[in-house]
Write a structure and sequence with these properties.
By secondary structure, this protein is of the alpha/beta class. 52% of the residues lie in helices and 9% in strands. Helix 12 links the parallel strand 4 and strand 5.
Length: 332
């Protein structure tokens, strides 16, 4: 039996989400319409600027304190041989980020983004979802609360990414539990799984759903039973950003799976989000369509670390500057 009490605060937040600033959005669109250019000639740049205004309340919008937050977690389910990479690779990637040598470091420098990388108890993998819950309720709620602290210190654009050996299998389990189907419908190569390994991944997902059958009607229960720490932290960060009216860029399969948990709880929960990058993982395009996302970029990036979101932040910053610069010309 579960009390559900640790999740009550999050359920209350999901039931009372703030909406967009429609006046700010309309002002940006009006300024673009008045600019000396063909109507809608800037395409999605205009849409991005309007979205940014709607969720920041600033028209024209500005991005002055963007933050890239990367959450790293390890998973007990890796013992089933569902990843070609050893579990220690997660900690190694975190250390490389700390040393400034990872891809995400360079992209953040290029686009002047702040970077925070969170080690979520990498020495203690979550429970094996095929035979146990990934987390207990209190642990999941505490990790969500920890994720909410990612915006401490202030930001006006939050980019979210992940690190975690085996987390493409966990993402597949979340999608299967939330949207239906079988493991084979949602698993893919991840970080390089061959056909035999992908079959094991599918079997593990099916085993997890069979083990947790009867407890997957509540999306927060889905998160704690077949998710993981980085998924819970990303979900928490998403909620905190919404409550503080901070626009969000999502990157990759795992972040999308974490976002899907909130979407199933409240279909408006992701209105302040854009999907920055579409990974080559087959399930990602399907999940993006179900969530109503149209990715900003499709560069074949499956690297993780939030690289797609950091690249997308460059587009968002350019859209903000385009909007403000053209608005100044209109006023003049």
């Amino acid at each position: 039996m579960t009390s559900a009490l640790p999740f009550d605060d999050f359920r209350n937040l999901l039931d009372n989400l703030p909406g967009a600033d429609l006046k700010a959005e309309a002002r940006v669109r009006t300024l673009f319409a008045k600019a000396d250019k063909p109507a809608h000639s800037l395409g999605r740049i205009e849409d991005i600027a309007a979205w940014l205004a709607a969720w920041s309340g600033r028209a024209p919008p500005a991005v002055t304190r963007p933050l890239m937050a990367v959450f790293a977690g390890n998973h007990g389910v890796t013992r089933h041989g569902i990843s070609p990479r050893p579990v220690v690779a997660t900690a190694n990637a975190v250390e490389l980020c700390a040393a400034g040598g990872a891809a995400i470091n360079q992209i953040c420098i290029a686009h002047d983004l702040g970077l925070k990388v969170f080690d979520l108890a990498l020495h203690i993998p979550t429970g094996d979802i095929a035979e146990d819950a990934a987390l207990d309720e209190r642990g999941c709620a505490a990790t969500m609360a920890f994720g909410m602290e990612a915006i401490a210190g202030g930001t006006d654009l939050l980019c979210l990414g992940d690190l975690g050996v085996g987390n493409s299998t966990v993402a597949a389990a979340l999608f299967t539990a939330l949207f239906g189907g079988r493991g084979a419908d949602w698993v893919g190569p991840g970080s390089g799984a061959d056909a035999a390994m992908q079959a094991r991944k599918a079997d593990v997902v099916d085993a997890a759903l069979a083990f947790h059958h009867g407890h997957l009607d509540d999306p927060l229960e889905v998160l704690r039973r077949v998710g993981g720490r980085e998924f819970a932290a990303i979900a928490g960060a998403l909620l905190a950003a919404r409550m503080q009216k901070i626009p969000v860029l999502l990157d990759g399969l795992a972040a999308t799976a974490a976002a899907a948990v909130l979407y199933v709880a409240n279909p408006s929960a992701l209105d302040h989000c854009l999907l920055a990058s579409l990974s080559p993982e087959p399930a990602h395009a399907r999940a993006a369509e179900l969530l109503g996302f149209r990715p900003l970029l499709d560069l074949g990036i499956s690297h993780g670390e939030g690289t797609g979101a950091a690249l997308g932040a460059g587009l968002v910053k350019a859209a903000a500057l385009t909007s403000s610069g053209m608005a100044a010309a209109v006023r003049a």
